[in-house]
Amino acid sequence: MKRPRYFWGLSALLFALLLALPALAQTAAPAAAAAAPAAPPKIDTGDTAWMLTSTALVLLMTVPGLALFYAGMVRKKNVLATMAQSLAAVALISILWVALGIVLTGIFATASIGGTSGLLEGDPHLLLIQLYGVAATLGWTVAATYVLLKLVSLFVPLRVSLQQEMEGLDISQHGEALQ
What we know:
Structural class: mainly alpha
Helix content: over 70%
């Protein structure tokens, strides 16, 4: 028997609610314990190092995984192009994620968390610093990419000559002939 679509949606919602039940069953802390001054949080360098390492490992696994996943869905002749497009998409999304995250930090930062206020709390100074950082990073990225492309083009031609393009790439590069 085929089940209607809303059945699966309701099943997923019920499952999510069941997972949230332990959080809903917790009781609030007594008022006396809540009134005691809490020690300021201490940033542990070991925890920070582990988070950075695990994030790097996840990213190192995700990019090839996505590339291989999407490459497995196309014909053999399109595998390399699909893998390159996956890598380019991940690179673009990473740059946008960092840039957007930095700008949003400058807007929504609050003094109670990081010690500095953002634009919403009336201090545009942090936003200007963050925008300067984004501009410097993007400028460095463009310059480094240009230098690397020029360096690669010394050893590997990135474009064919005009004569080869006019002749046709299939004939000039692959030796195919018209039948």
